[in-house]
Amino acid sequence: MNFILRIIKKSFLWTYARNTWQWDVLCVLILAFIFLSPKSWFANGERRPPEEHQSSALTTVIIGPELVGDTEDKAQIEQKVRVFTGRADAQVVGAPRRHDQAGKTLWYEVDIR
After folding, report:
1. Which candidate in 11, 26, 46, 95 could, as Cys together with 110 as Cys, close a disulfide (CB 3.0–4.6 Å)?
2. Closest CA to 14 of 36, 29, 1
3. How far apart, in whole angstroms, are the C-alpha atoms of residue 88 and residue 10?
4. What's the pLDDT at 34?
5. How far is CA 90 from CA 32, 34, 59, 60, in A?
6. Bridge partners, residue 60, by sequence
7. C-alpha–C-alpha distance, residues 21 and 6, integer Å
8. How far apart are the C-alpha atoms of 95 and 60, rounded to whole Å?
9. How confident is residue 112, by pLDDT bands cut at 50, 70 and 90?
């Protein structure tokens, strides 16, 4: 029983040296968590309306506020996205604004078809 408690304590406090197999196992577990965990686990509560997910051919373009300006008009955003991407047939599905805690607009995540 003492042996098992010692292993748990060493694993929790991680007292193993870098060149041991235990260190390698921990690194593999960390990498597996990073690359195999679903993206939805890390979403910060923002959900898009279901109508935006109907088409599987959506492309998200990150655009700075200096390009879009201070507009919420979808037609103006669509026109600027067409110029920016070089796609004359681009159709804006959604353009949520991302801002910092002070309310300053950082970028727009523009979903286009």
Report:
1. 95
2. 29
3. 60
4. 92
5. 37, 33, 10, 11
6. 111
7. 17
8. 9
9. confident
In sequence order, the 6+-apart residues with CB closer than 8 A to the CB of 71 are 77
CA distance 60 to 106: 16
pTM, entire model: 0.44
Instruction: Quote the mean pLDDT of the chain.
Output: 81
Give the amino acid at 49.
Answer: P
- Domain residue ranges of the chain, discontinuous segments joined by +: 2-42, 56-112
pLDDT tens, position by position, 52-103: 445 457 888 888 888 877 667 788 888 888 888 888 888 888 888 888 888 8
> Residue 63: beta bridge partners?
108
- More confident call, 33 vs 65: 33
Residue type, 8: I
Q: Tell me the two tokens of residue 12.
A: 């929790």
Residues 6+ apart with CB under 8 A from 57: 113
